[in-house]
Design goal:
Elements (H helix, E strand, L loop, with lengths): L2 E10 L9 E11 L4 E7 L7 H11 L3 E11 L1 H4 L5 H17 L8 H12 L6 H44 L2 H24 L6 H18 L2 H20 L4 H20 L4 H21 L4
Parallel strand pairs: 3-4
Antiparallel strand pairs: 1-2, 2-4
Helix pairs in contact: 1-5, 5-8, 5-10, 6-7, 8-9, 9-10
């Protein structure tokens, strides 16, 4: 299921108390449809150590979807523009000269790179574990809420498709006895024609048995009462799961496959255009449900 959330948190820099030295921790999380859980984490260098905890948090609460989490740390303008001391700049220049003496082809440091090195050199190491998890829990809660709202809309759509499938099943039920009766009438007509052609001659009893056997076999072949009963049973179970909620996605996948199987059997046994049309309409509705069920967790 799809969802998106973005949250930010201002964290005071380690060893600094002023608001101008705060750093901004940002976290974005998004998910798109997928039959399985596929996690992708994009973390800034300061947050690499938090990846195992973030993966555990996502795995604990999510079961499906292609989920991408991005977390980053930015400094405020006041902290970013802090003026480095001359001693620190001399140290950076000395280190650059030492490196280039061994690697003459190395490119010189840019102003931005020098400022970044100076800013990181004097800053104590920051512990990002607590604020990162706090922010991830907030973002995850917002995204799960968005997915729940989408799930409610999907349930309404699926219940509507169930209603249409039930109507088609009710249409198919009375057709089978009609087809059996029509076929029995055809056999009777052919039997009368055979009797007339015989012109009073005795018709072998084996021929009578053969006609009766063919009529019986045809009735058995086109009988779809069992398929309709199983289809209605699957529809009842799907409706129960949708109203129950929870982690029902994989079970719905299985039931949709069974619905498709029954609709195919209904079409293969069809002996009339009306029954064939019902089977095709059922498969169209079931395919629409299958596409949406893959989004349900």
């Amino acid at each position: 299921m799809t969802g998106y959330a973005s949250v930010q948190l201002a964290v005071a820099a380690a060893g600094e108390g002023g608001p101008g030295n705060a750093r901004r921790l940002g976290l974005e999380i998004r998910s798109v449809n997928s039959r399985f859980l596929d996690l992708s984490l994009r973390l800034s260098d300061e947050l690499r150590a938090q990846e195992p905890a973030l993966r555990a948090l996502l795995t604990q609460q999510l079961k499906r979807g292609k989920v991408e989490l991005r977390a980053f740390v930015d400094s405020t303008d006041a902290a970013a523009l802090a003026e480095p001391t001359p001693r620190l700049l001399q140290r950076v220049e000395a280190l650059q000269d030492a490196v280039r003496s061994w690697l003459p082809g190395a490119a010189p440091l840019s102003v931005a790179e020098a400022l970044r090195l100076c800013a990181n050199a004097g800053a104590p190491e920051q512990d990002w574990s607590a604020p990162t998890l706090e922010l991830a829990e907030r973002a995850l809660a917002d995204m799960v809420a968005a997915r729940e709202r989408e799930g409610e809309r999907l349930v309404v759509m699926l219940l509507d498709r169930l209603k249409q499938l039930r109507a088609l099943a009710r249409q198919a039920g009375p057709l089978v006895p009609q087809l059996v009766e029509q076929q029995r009438q055809r056999f009777m007509e052919r039997w009368r024609e055979a009797m007339q052609l015989a012109e009073g001659a005795a018709v072998p009893e084996a021929a009578q048995d053969r006609a009766l056997s063919e009529a019986t076999a045809f009735a058995i072949r086109i009988d779809v009462a069992e398929e309709i009963t199983r289809l209605q049973s699957h529809l009842d179970e799907i409706e129960r799961l949708l109203k129950k909620g929870g982690e029902v996605g994989k079970r719905l996948d299985f039931l949709i496959q069974e619905l498709h199987r029954e609709a195919n059997t209904l079409g293969s046994k069809s002996a009339a255009m009306d029954l064939t049309r019902i089977s095709v309409d059922m498969k169209v509705l079931i395919e629409q449900m299958r596409e949406q069920v893959q989004n349900i967790e």
